[in-house]
Structure formats: C-alpha cells, structure tokens
Amino acid sequence: MSKGLERRKAILSDPIAQFERAVEIREFENQINALFASGTIRGTTHLCLGQEALAIGLASVLRTDDPVSATYRSHGIALALGLTPESAMAEIMGKATGCCGGLGGSMHLCDLELGLLPTSAIIGGGMPIAAGAALAFQVQGNDRVAVAVFGDGATNIGAFHETLNLAAIWKLPVVFICDNNVYAEYSRINLTTPIEDLHIRAESYAMPHYALDGMDIDVVREGIQSAVDRARSGGGPTLIEAKTYRFAGHSRADQALYRPEGELDSWKSRDPLLLLEERAKKIGKMSESDVADMKARKTKEIEATVALCQAAPEPSPKTMFENIWSRKVNQ
Amino acid sequence: MPAMRVRQAIATALADEMRTDPTVIVFGEDIAAAEGPFKTTEGLLEEFGPIRVRDTPISEMAFTGAAVGAATMGMKPVIEIMFMEFLGVALDQLVTEGAKMRYLSNGKLSVPMVVRASVGGGLGFGGQHSQTLENWVAATPGLKVLSPSDAQSAYSLLRAAIQDPDLVMFLEPRVTYAERGEVDTNLKMEIGKARVAKPGKDLTIVALGQMTNIARQAAATSSTDIEVIDLCTIVPWDKKTVFESVKKTGRLVVVEEQPESGGWGSEIVAAVSAEFFGELKAAPIRITCPNVPVPYNGGLEARFLPNPTEVNYQIDQLMATGKAPQPWWIREGF
Ligand SMILES: Cc1ncc(C[n+]2csc(CCOP(=O)(O)OP(=O)(O)O)c2C)c(N)n1
Ligand SMILES: [Mg+2]
C-alpha cells in the first residue's frame, strides 16, 4: 500500500489518528505561513486554519475512488485525504518532488490515487467538474460519488446555480459542500449575500440541503455520510453548508483587520483542534502527556519536512513542456 | 512632477475622472471598503461614497453585464476584474453582449465603459492567475484593448479609456503595480497611439505592458541601436508609428508575453511583412512564451517569460544572419 493510502486508512475511524492529522495540518499551515511571510516561498497561499475538522471528517467518510474537487484553500483537505506533507510542501515550494512536479503551487494540489482532483483557483470552477465526474459514474452504473468543496463566496457565482440545477434534474451522485468560513476575501458574507443560511439556495433546485457545525468532526462525519449514502444509492445530490471560520487572513499578506472585534476569539473557543483533543482524550484515552508528546513529534516531523523539501531538486525546464497533450507534439 | 506607483497612478486617474465626470461609477470585488486587492482603488469609497463606488459579490458575469447595461443608460462604469482569468466566467456579457450593442442597435446605443483587469506572470501565482490572455479580447470587433507599461501610461491611458465612448479593455501588468514613475497629470495619451520608449536606428522592437521594460533592458545592453516602441494599444494598433520605425530600421522584433500561438504580435508581423515585402533587412520575428501554461516554479516561470538575455540573443542572431533564430525551447530540444 502506498504511503498516501496508508495515511488515508489511518484516519478512517481512529479518534487519535484524526486528532493527530488535525495537528499535522495545523503545523503544516503554520510553517507554510512562516515560509511565505519570510519570502522563502514566493507567490501567494491560502491557509485552512480553523477548517481542519471539515477536511478530516470528509476524508474519513469518502472512499479513495470518490473524487473530490476542491479549491485553492485545500492544503488541509489534501493532507486529510492522505497526501503526504512532503508531497504537498514540495509542491508549494515549487519543487520537482511535489505532487504536481512544482508546476502547480499552493493553489494547485492533486493526487488521483487518493481522489484529489486538481484543485481550482477559479471561484466555482470545480463545481461543474464534480457534477461531470458524477455523470460519468451514473452512466457507468457504478456506485462512486463525487464531491465538490467550495467557499461561501462561491454561492454567488453562476457555476454554483447552474451546477446545482443540472445535478438536481439529472439526480447525479454528487455532494456539494459549502465551507462557509464567513469571509470571501475581505468581505464578510453578509455584505455580499442577502441570506445567512446559504444551504437554503438548494431549496429552489428541490435538492436536499442542511447546515452543520463544521468545527465538530462527529457532526461533519454524520452530515457528509448521509449525503454520500444518498448519492451512492441513487438518491441524487445534496447541498451541505458547513459552518466554519477562517482563523487566518484570506491570503499571504492579509491581516484580516476588517473582522469585528471578538469574532475570531469566539470562534477560537470552538477551535476544531480543541474539540478533537477532548474527543481523543475521552474516546481514545489519550493522556495529557500523550497529547504533548504527539504535538512535539508533529512539530518535529513538519520541521523535518521543511528541511527535506528545501533540499529537494528544482524541476527541469523540460517539465513545463510535458503534460500539454497526450503525446508531445513539437511545434 | 510627482513620482507614484503604478497602482497609485491608476487610483489617481480614477479619482480625477470621477471628479470631472459624475457619470463615472466604479465597482468590482473588494474594491470599495478594502480599496482593492492590489490597492488600485485607494481612497475612492471615502471620497465618492457607496453609491458610486461599490463592492460586488463574486459574480463577474452579473457585474460585467450590469456595467454594459448601465453604460447603455448614460453611465460610465469602470469595473475591475481582479485577475484576467476571471473574465472567463463573464465573457458572454463582454464579447457577445457589450461589444455588439452599438451594432445591434443600429448605432443608437453606446457602451462607454472600461474593464480593468490585472494580467501577466512573474509573481509566482501559477497557471490560473498569471496569463495575459490578450487574445481573448483582441479578436472581438467592437472592443478596444489597451495595456499600460508604467505609471505615466497607466494614468494617461486610463483617463483616455474612461473618456472614450466605446468599450475599452484596460489590461494592467500586475508586476508593475508597485513600480514607481513620474506622472504628469496634464499629459494626455491617445488610444491607438504608440510611444517611442527609446529611439534607435538599426532595429525596431514592438512591446507591450511589462515586456516594454524587458525590451528597454535588452536595448540598454545591446550592441545594436534599438528603437523600442511601447505599443500601448493592441486594438486599434498604431500602424503609423510602427511602420515609420520599421521603414527607418528595416528590422522588426515583437516581444510578447503570450504563448506563441495566436498572439497579437502576429498581426504586427503580418502587416509589416505585407507593407515592406522585399525591403526588410531581416526576417520580422516574434519573441514569445512557449505554448504551455505558466509554470509555478520560480526558475521555470522566469524561463517561460521573455527576458533581456533571450531578447538579446535573438537580436544578435538576427543582426548576424538576417534569419529568424529558433526560440530557446527548440534550441534546447524541448
Ligand atoms: C471567478 C473568480 N473571481 C474572483 C476570484 C478571486 N478570489 C479568490 S478567493 C476569493 C474569495 C472566495 O471566497 P470563498 O468562496 O468564501 O472561499 P474562501 O476563500 O473563504 O475559502 C476571490 C474573490 C477568483 N479566484 N475567481
Ligand atoms: Mg469563505
């Protein structure tokens, strides 16, 4: 079994492994943040701090042959699905050993063995793709399910509405997950959107829809599982709105000064890592010192990953000419 | 003359137009309260208020089309498409609706609006946030397509674009936003008029946007006396200035930040070839990006973009042989 598949298997049900993966994602994002802030990595990055429970909950419910179409804010989803930190970080550093050979970057991770379709940096861009994957499964007559993950801001783009309608009339085996982290760039969702509960938009497409607490992995798992079950058994699509919160700014340079005072703190009191820790202690019988040891180990591991990736080779110029067409055509 | 950054020149041009023309309105994603992802709309909300300066939802199709509609009813909207790629989801409203309004109303409707979009590579934004995509809009009759290269042209051309009675695409090279330059706010620049950025007599480079700076750098170190023309307008491009220069130098090199296929430079080379057939001292050539997406890796992105070293290599070969040299990716067997 590949390392990625092993990593996926590990988090399917074990609360300790799930907590550990969340810690890994948090450490990973903090390192990425530091690397961008210091200028070690150029370009831009979008962190998923605060959204770990949704990522892990999703990954623990899906099969590896269920493709996920997600966004530029998907380091967490990628790691949760099983992508190794080395592969993700090398990609973000633009190294040859990255999951896209260093040609994609922070916004474009992928691993087809784990069901991670190339992530899109265009708002709404992944939604029709997920519907299309589901169409293929319907035609093929198998029981695979496709998933689209997108932000709250994406509910205002045409692709959202067109895709929901199409998936509804064709009863496609697809699950739409709106990660409502309250902000789209620098705009609080209420400034651009006249409704608070975004999932009700599915009502007009006669599609099952509900909101769930995206900070609580058990709630996430239950909510996604029921939508996946419905899709797998021919019951068609579902729109889920996971209520989360973006702990960081939108992207590299954003300090997020536009947030109302106290909002971040109030969400941080329900930090998914705290909830996962409690759960790991309660169900998994982790002790205080187990937690401290694990966190220290994860910090070390991610630090080692940084060093490893910094030493990794740069891609050769020839790689930018590969993967354009099925066969290379000299022009 | 004040020195300002390109992004400030843009904000200043917008403010100056809004002061003189009350029909100018500005909207886009995070351009009002946050003053723009690239700070190109700084101060506008404060001075002109939320009726004329608006944040939009992430709905490019709706707000691009809304600009077209408002323009037909007497307003002059200036909209911001944060990255040129996002125009993809709004293209119908621009090329199939907006660009056809005058024609399909038998000349009764005008669409005096400006679509500002940031374009280009060099900042490590990857394959979906780094293209120039000029050719998406250059082939649609009814649109005018401009691209400034520095603070002065950003200021003067944007004012000209807003004053223009037609639908103007204003493509802003993202890498230049932070660059400083002197700006004479009284200097007028015309749509359809190129600038001679550096005079010379042996070879003409035609460049656009951030490639103008690349061409300037190449010219500064070249042993050839190069004339650099900053095209400024892709549609309608300035035949007169280009022809006059090529008539003098007998050699044309177009430097384009675009994949080789389908670039605007082909128009220039074709027109120059037809006009000066038999009179040229060397084959007219284009220096472009290869026909691949923009790579993320920094070293590769730098190779991908035309750069002074490659420009000078091509020019040296051209001066020596008169023949079109191979691009680097063919020379290196890629
Ligand atoms: C079509 C399109 N328009 C605009 C953007 C610029 N943009 C990138 S992220 C973003 C905000 C998206 O917010 P949301 O959907 O809530 O996702 P989040 O970033 O919160 O995960 C915007 C406007 C884009 N990438 N694509
Ligand atoms: Mg959001």
List the helices and strands and how they pair.
The complex is a heterodimer of chains A (331) and B (334).
Chain A: H1 3-10, H2 15-37, H3 52-61, E1 68-69, H4 75-81, H5 85-92, H6 126-140, E2 146-151, H7 158-169, E3 174-180, E4 183-184, E5 187-188, H8 189-192, E6 209-213, H9 217-232, E7 238-243, H10 263-268, H11 272-282, H12 288-311
Parallel strand pairs in A: 1-2, 2-3, 3-7, 6-7
Antiparallel strand pairs in A: 4-5
Helix pairs in contact in A: 2-3, 2-4, 2-11, 2-12, 3-4, 3-9, 5-12, 6-7
Chain B: E1 3-5, H1 6-20, E2 24-28, H2 44-52, E3 53-55, H3 60-72, E4 76-81, H4 91-97, H5 101-104, E5 114-119, H6 134-138, E6 143-146, H7 151-163, E7 167-173, E8 180-182, E9 195-198, E10 203-207, H8 210-221, E11 226-230, E12 233-235, H9 239-249, E13 252-259, H10 265-275, E14 285-289, H11 298-304, H12 308-321, H13 328-331
Parallel strand pairs in B: 2-3, 2-4, 4-5, 5-7, 6-7, 10-11, 10-13, 13-14
Antiparallel strand pairs in B: 1-8, 6-12, 9-11
The structure holds thiamine diphosphate and magnesium ion.
Thiamine diphosphate sits between chains A (71, 73, 121-123, 150-154, 181, 183-185, 246) and B (29, 58, 60, 82, 86, 89).
Largest sheet of chain B, described in full?
A: 7 strands, mixed
Measured between the Cα atoms of the first and last residue of chain B, the distance is: 48 Å
Protein structure class of chain A: alpha/beta
Unreliable runs of chain B: none
Give the overall silhouette of chain B: globular
Strand content of chain A: 5-15%
Number of strands of chain B: 14
Oligomer: heterodimer
β-strand number of chain A:
7
Shape, principal axes of CA atoms of chain A? globular
The H/E string of chain A reads: HHHEHHHEHEEEHEHEHHH
CATH architecture of chain A: 3-Layer(aba) Sandwich
User: In the CATH hierarchy, what is the superfamily of the largest domain in chain B?
Assistant: Thiamin diphosphate (ThDP)-binding fold, Pyr/PP domains
Neighbour order of strands in the largest sheet of chain A: 1-2-3-7-6
What is the CATH class name of the largest domain in chain B? Answer: Alpha Beta
The order of strands across the largest sheet of chain B is 3-2-4-5-7-6-12
> Into which percent range does the helicity of residues of chain B fall?
25-40%
Q: Report the C-alpha radius of gyration of chain A, rounded.
A: 19 Å
Task: State the distance separating the first and last CA atoms of chain A.
Answer: 40 Å
Kindly give the count of domains of chain A. Answer: 1
